[in-house]
Amino acid sequence: MSTDSWTLPRHRLARLLAALAGVAKTPKPPEAKLAIEGLSATVRVSFDAHGVAHIQAQSATDAFLVQGYLHGRDRGFQMDLARRFAEASLAELLGEGALAYDRFLRRLDLRRHAESSLALLPEDHRQWLAAYVSGVNRAWAEKALPPEYTLLKSRPRPWTEIDTMGVSYQLAWTLNTVWQTKWALDQLKGAPDALQLLFGAGELSETIIPDTGPASSLGSASIGSNNWVVSGAHTKSRSPMLANDPHLAPQLPSIWYELWIEGGPLSVAGVSLPGAPGVIIGQNQSIAWGLTNVNPDVQDLYRIKMEEDGETYLLDGERKTLSRRDEVIRVRGKADQVLTCWDSEWGPVIHEEEGSKVALAWTAFQPLPVLSSVLRLNLAQDWESFQTALADWLVPAQNVVYADRAGHIGYVMAGQLLTRPAGWAKGVQDGNRRAATWTGTVPMKDTPRLFDPPSGLIVTANNPVVGQDHPTQVAGSFAAGARAHRIRQLLEQSDQHDQDSFGAIQLDVYSVSLHRFAAQLADQPNLPAGWGARLTTFDGRVDASSVVPTICYLVAAAAVPEAVNQSLLRPFFSDVTPGLPEANPFPERFWSLAGDRLVPWLLDHWAELDLGAAVASAEQAGQAAFGPDLECWQWGEAHQARPFHPLAEVALTRPLFGRRPLAMGGDSETVLQAAISFDPTLPWPRRVLVMPSFREVLELGDRSRSTAVHLTGQSGHCLSPHYDDLLGLYMSGERSALGPGMVPVRQVVFGPAGAAVGVPSESSSA
Predict the structure, then answer these.
(1) How confident is the model at residue 763 (pLDDT cuts 50, 70, 90)?
(2) Which of 378, 462, 726, 747 allows an S-S link to 268, with CB 3.0 to 4.6 Å?
(3) pLDDT band, residue 356 (cuts 50/70/90)
(4) Domain for residue 173, yes or no?
């Protein structure tokens, strides 16, 4: 499929006008030979047809320097946004529209913790990070900056080591959401039905560690991912295979940057995070690994009753004073704003009420050595070194599946867990008493793990880690278990798995809850014309071409009792006017916490629902949104992904930076998860908020057979052919070679500054 297939109307006109105005020109590929300050020897970089790089260096330091150059060249604007998120300075670049982010995140003071994290890096990792930073700034020193900066009349300041450390905190905030559950329990305590919809147990039969008893959850998992690993007893090759597809918000450019790095002891292929050296998810010459989010209970909220001065409070009768920070927030095109921030005994104040302040305690408010963990993971060679690498992975906690060339498979819950003798802290705690809700941390060696289970299968899909009989309890917000159950069910159907069968599982769109919902809805009397036959024959597959999912979700939205609906429509914070989903670094309304619980809740309350009124309302809403012809109600018309770029949200620049909406199948329960907000105030079609950002299928017997694809392309330049050239591959469910199976189509040779750039010898680990 051609690149033009994904461009928006008026894209060619916008491209011509941008070129005439000097805003954006089609970027040229790197010169065949380049000199970079800091290299100790020549480095060869080969690119495949999608712009995926294979770095061949003689040392890890040189390899990371070139990785920094590629990240800086291809993803400079994206990296700048990432660090600005962590340091809460988005409005300086993007203007008033980003103030909500800056005002909230500046209270968290994440950059201070990022600064202190540098001291945790061992000397070799600090050297590699310095090389990476040097490479980024070498790319940024070139004249050709991303077109976003021309439009915004700005330039990025140099990248620093602290900026890289801040990327960990950006991820941690996105993936740790238990505090939202606790705020909802506090604010909705007078609405038990609404709380039951949000936090009802659902089906929690699937635990990652099997045979550990029944599980529980503090709430639904709003962000999901899948990974699994099988032993050679379940594959055609008789060697282990591993799959991973992390589910995140769709973005332009892609969240991930794929590459294969060789240098010194390194030979690792997978996806990296622009802004940081190394590979986050992938495979080296000995092991493979994949990640999904845990979202454990590592956050607490405290309501502090303040004295009349608004700055002092009593803590067990002792007078305490909040620490004050006056933060200056720069706003593009506007006067600077001064934000008064308060820090308490418990942590930063994130919300103020009449007479009290609400503070957040979180394990991420400390130096985080996650970068060292990633770099050690890239070099791990066996189960022991894999576990050692993950010992420093504190936040955000992850389910990490493992396989090695010796035929072993395993799993580690990597992340800091808290000891809570009194159990998890419900709602908001009394901030005027020192009663501890957590007393310490669980030793990393005691976090749940598996090695070579008898079944030869390990599956994680944000479901509970363990049941109540496991010696180490993991409280948290988990998915109800439908995805994990479906994956295991499909894996158990064969002992001849290969690339095709794993790929098919990643694309599976069967929804057990929607299947039941459609069957029960089909029995209702007086259904609109054409509904009955479709509902009766629905097989549970939430295909983009099917109209049944649209019918079901229109009815589901209309069937929620009005009292429950009104409770969930409340603003998450009373002093924040809701906008569109994702407009703040916290939910807009309590509806945003529904996750995968709405349809199961409706099924449990079926007899209490006014289904006649819901069907009539759904028919009216469907006709208003899609017209009277039922064939126009296809799920792909109602349920679309529009990858986010800040300038694609502006009408004038949308044709340049945006791409066509992606008609998506799946829902919040399917293996191919594509979740939308159930907020009834939002119009149809609904925007997909979470979906697979990357899919990999890794083979341990022969690395050349490993494959991957990510959304949307390698380049962040809106006129590059690699800005969106992976969309066709991704949407058709295909993948391309990862690592040794890559086919090079062009090459760039990097040499030390001041030296003749020759052709390097082959890497010894190639």
Answers:
(1) very low
(2) 378
(3) very high
(4) no
Confidence of residue 761 (pLDDT cuts 50, 70, 90): very low
Question: Could you tell me which residues are beta bridge partners of residue 695?
Answer: 709
Please tell me the distance from the alpha carbon of residue 492 to that of residue 313, in angstroms, as a whole number: 58
The whole-model pTM stands at: 0.95
Q: Which helix (H) or strand (E) holds 686?
A: strand 686-687
Mean pLDDT of all residues in 739-764: 74
Q: Are 263 and 252 in contact (CB under 8 A)?
A: no
- With a cut of 70, say whether residue 202 has pLDDT above it: no
Residue ending a domain, choose from 631, 661, 692: 692
Number of structural domains found in the chain: 3
Please state, rounded to an integer, the average pLDDT across all residues of the chain. 94
Alpha-carbon distance of 346 to 429, in angstroms, equals 11
Tell me the helix, strand and coil percentages in the chain, rounded to 5: 35, 20, 45
Map residue 194 onto helix, strand or coil: helix
Which of 461, 497, 450 has the alpha carbon at shortest distance from 205?
Answer: 461
Residues 679, 681, 685, 688: is their CA dihedral positive or negative?
negative
Angle, helices 110-117 vs 60-87, to 10°: value is 160
Helix (H, G, I), strand (E, B), or coil: what is residue 218? coil
* Residue found by looking up tokens 């109540």 in the block: 468
Beta carbons of 371 and 132 less than 8 angstroms apart: no
**520 and 466 in one domain?**
no
Residue 147 forms part of a structural domain = no
Nearest to 252 by CA among 710, 765, 595: 710
| Whole-angstrom distance, CA of residue 761 vs CA of residue 85 | 41
Q: Which of 402, 386, 419 is nearest to 460 (CA)?
A: 402
Under the banding of pLDDT at 50, 70 and 90, the label for residue 426 is confident
For 629-643, the DSSP string reads -GGGG-HHHHEEE--
For 43-97, the pLDDT digits (tens) are 999 999 999 999 999 999 999 999 999 999 999 999 999 999 999 999 999 999 9
Nearest to 132 by CA among 371, 368, 395, 370: 371
> Which of 272, 224, 261 minimizes the C-alpha distance to 82?
272
Q: Alpha-carbon distance 424 to 418, whole Å?
A: 10
Kindly state whether residue 149 falls inside one of the protein's structural domains.
no
Q: 412: which strand partners? A: 400, 449
Integer angstrom CA distances of residue 703 from 104, 381, 405, 690, 766: 45, 15, 10, 30, 12
The 3-class secondary structure across 61-119, one letter per residue, is HHHHHHHHHHHHHHHHHHHHHHHHHHHCCHHHHHCHHHHHHHHHHHHHCHHHHHHHHHH
Instruction: Look up residue 476 and give its DSSP letter.
Output: B
State how far the Cα of 617 lies from the Cα of 458, in Å rounded to an integer: 44
Range of the domain at 341: 299-362
Given a contact cutoff of 8 angstroms between Cβ atoms, the answer to whether 234 and 457 are in contact is: yes
3-class DSSP assignment, residue 60 = helix
Contacts 24+ apart (CB under 8 A), 497-503: 497/230, 497/234, 497/235, 497/236, 497/241, 498/235, 498/236, 498/237, 498/241, 499/697, 499/699, 499/705, 499/707, 499/735, 502/241, 502/243, 502/697, 503/695, 503/697, 503/707, 503/733, 503/735
Rounded mean pLDDT, 596-617: 95
* Peptide bond connecting 396 to the previous residue in cis, omega within 30 degrees of 0: yes
DSSP line for 380-443: --SHHHHHHHHTT--SS-EEEEEEETTS-EEEEEES--EE-TT----SEEETTS---S--EE--
What is residue 27's predicted lDDT score, i.e. its pLDDT? 85
Give me the DSSP letters along 618-629: HHHHHHHHH-S-
**Does the residue 5 lie in any domain?**
no
Closest CA to 634 of 557, 728, 542, 555: 542
Q: Average of pLDDT values for 257-271?
A: 98
DSSP 264-307: TTEEEEEEE-TTSSS-SEEE-SSEEEEEEE--BS-EEEEEEEBP
Q: Do residues 132 and 277 touch, judged by C-beta distance below 8 A? A: yes
